[in-house]
């Protein structure tokens, strides 16, 4: 099969297109012909290298995969040849106490396709039967690939970790990212008022179109001051953050007493300082969030099919131009998801 592979960590020049052996589905696995795969910031981190990440080369990136069923192992039932499918971006052991109590993203063997295992920058991928999700009609393969990782991440962060409720006000940083695009829509479904900050007025105009109630242009307005103005001096109930260090002080300064800050990433830098007096006097909750439970997507997909949550696609590239796609994501030029078209049939 044709694939975009990595033979070592490094820059975009390390993304190489070549033929590699087809994956063989195991007894309980399904072979999927990939039609589209969406990029995530994770792809850049894995390409460049992460502490404790040991890859088996050649490695194949790609977590958000839409395609059709090509074949399956003898232990698999209930699928049809050519059936359109969307894949769970994560796999877990399905046997430990965390998995069996529905908290699979706390499984010690929780792995993400394209990070810890081979992913979808390839014509074929073999995945466990439990990774097969119903395809969200009437989306295209490219649109469907925009959904899994960011919506799962935003769903857990907003719904379960931060507990966003109707009537609350939520601040989200960074208008162009896939997580923000998902989180804004999810918070609107939950009935919250949403404020989004960005350095780009163009991106803020677009995030308003998908539901943000208020926007803050952080190059011209101090975020925490503007939040106070918008909330009558009270501050927001929840901050959903994936930027980290550059906006940390503004995030804390924007929170209402008793508020919650949830973090699922640190694209701007991971090291922050924390004055504990702010935490205990204001009774702030700080919570981390990574990915989501695999069942979360089964709650997200009906909302996608009903048109209440929408994929937002930035642009597509053929698989052969994966390096150009990475360059665009790395430069932060995108609004929504960048998608690689693996097979345009
Ligand atoms: Zn487990």
How would you sum up this structure, described in words?
There is one protein chain. Helix 4 packs across helix 5 (178-189) and helix 7 packs parallel to helix 8 (248-254). The protein is globular, with a radius of gyration of 20 Å. The mean pLDDT is 96. The protein has 11 helices and 18 strands. The longest helix has 14 residues, at 148-161. The protein has 2 domains: 2-147 and 312-341, Alpha-Beta Complex (Quinone Oxidoreductase, Chain A, domain 1), CATH 3.90.180; 151-288, 3-Layer(aba) Sandwich (Rossmann fold). The protein has helices spanning 41-48, 97-100, 141-145, 148-161, 178-189, 201-209, 223-230, 248-254, 276-281, 296-305, 322-330; strands spanning 2-6, 16-19, 29-38, 59-60, 64-72, 84-87, 90-91, 111-112, 124-128, 132-134, 169-173, 193-198, 214-217, 236-241, 255-263, 285-288, 313-318, 337-341.
Annotate the secondary structure layout.
Layout: E1 2-6, E2 16-19, E3 29-38, H1 41-48, E4 59-60, E5 64-72, E6 84-87, E7 90-91, H2 97-100, E8 111-112, E9 124-128, E10 132-134, H3 141-145, H4 148-161, E11 169-173, H5 178-189, E12 193-198, H6 201-209, E13 214-217, H7 223-230, E14 236-241, H8 248-254, E15 255-263, H9 276-281, E16 285-288, H10 296-305, E17 313-318, H11 322-330, E18 337-341
The chain binds zinc ion.
Zinc ion (ZN) binds next to α2.
